[in-house]
Design brief:
The protein is α/β, with parallel strands linked by helices. It has 2 domains: about 150 residues, Alpha-Beta Complex (Aspartate Aminotransferase, domain 1), CATH 3.90.1150.10; about 230 residues, Type I PLP-dependent aspartate aminotransferase-like (Major domain) (Aspartate Aminotransferase, domain 2, 3-Layer(aba) Sandwich), CATH 3.40.640. The protein is built from 13 helices and 13 strands. The strands form 3 sheets. It has a 7-stranded mixed beta sheet, with helices on both faces. A 4-stranded antiparallel beta sheet has the order 9-10-13-12. The protein has a two-stranded parallel sheet with strand order 1-11. The mean pLDDT is about 95. Bound molecules: pyridoxal-5'-phosphate (PLP). Pyridoxal-5'-phosphate (PLP) binds next to helix 5 and helix 6.
Amino acid sequence: MSRDRAALEALDREDPLRGFRQRFALPEGVLYLDGNSLGALPRAAMARLERTVVEEWGEGLITSWLAADWMEAPRRVGDKIAALIGAGPGEVIVADSTSVNVFKAVTAALSLRPERSVILSETGNFPTDLYMMQGIAAFSGGRVRAEAVAGDAVLGRLGEDVAVLLLTQVHYKTGAVHDMAEMTRAAHAAGALVVWDLSHSAGAIPVDLNGAGADFAVGCGYKFLNGGPGAPAYLFAAQRHHGAAVPVLSGWLGHAEPFAFEDGYRPADGIARFLCGTPPVLGMAALECGVDLMAEADMGALRDKSLRLGRIFMELMETHCGEFGFTLVSPREDARRGSQVSFAHPQGYGIMQALKERGVIGDFRAPDVLRFGLTPLYLRYADMLEAVLQIRAVCETRAWYDPRWKVRAAVT
Ligand SMILES: Cc1ncc(COP(=O)(O)O)c(C=O)c1O
């Protein structure tokens, strides 16, 4: 199939999602392939933040906790995210960061399997997931062990000692997708519970937590949900676990009656027990705009476009950059690929810096991976060609070779 500019622009004209691009404030001259790391700014968020700051905070002051419904925001936005990830109302709460929610979900799952001692994950999982389980194990004083094995060895390792399996559905570096239903079934058959990290899944691929029988899940608000820098994260707990899973982070807002100010902790009924402290109202307001926008999009159309963008990007890389030594690290097969395409290259860091200087923004993950996030709401098919031609230009001119990039920046 022809992949020239005219053919790609024709695809853009027929794209059922083409109207979404103008709902984002995208800078001129920038090709943004990093929405898997920090989503773009929904225009609605600018007005919403101004209203929240000027009217709700400035004028309403503390009365806005009730008058502007700040108090309900974690549940309200949680319910909206639930609809995107195959969860029911009252099963998702917005709170804290993903790291903290990993802690909350894993310790809750451990409390449901007191006779078992292992938290299992895969090597190469996103570091915070591994670090949090290592921290829990260290804090447990020897009762709990954290163990990570290669992805293809996870099912074989499920034994009578495994309490919790902690996996990321779409791998942050490669974009490879785990079969959530199959892994959950296998873990349950072995008597373990599963915590899914959906940071690269929600808003990127169809997710069906309840269809898969998932126990707990967590995920970021600032990636494909376009919730803004440092947006609060979310936590899913299947309704069947609400009664027995007792939070370890037993903060006052997860109490059954926070404003009774009792000395003793009594967990709230339902998902509210996974709240800990005061919600970040400004971040929540921005996140809600991103989630509302995502909720308008048809997930089938979104997935079709995401996969097609990926196929086109990979084909164009072969055609235009085949001689420059890139190795595809994302699965070529559609069913196994999330909404990103990654390549390994020995000069990956310099290539990405040179690309950013040319207005093509992706990111770099050590030791050698260039990640290109493909966000169907605001990317066009023709953008794939522009990006690949810029990658070619960087390689042809060896623009990646620059003394400025000898030292890596704090954020890559
Ligand atoms: C899979 C995954 N989990 C967790 C995180 C980190 O979440 P947070 O910084 O909100 O704790 C990331 C960040 O990129 C991620 O990719």
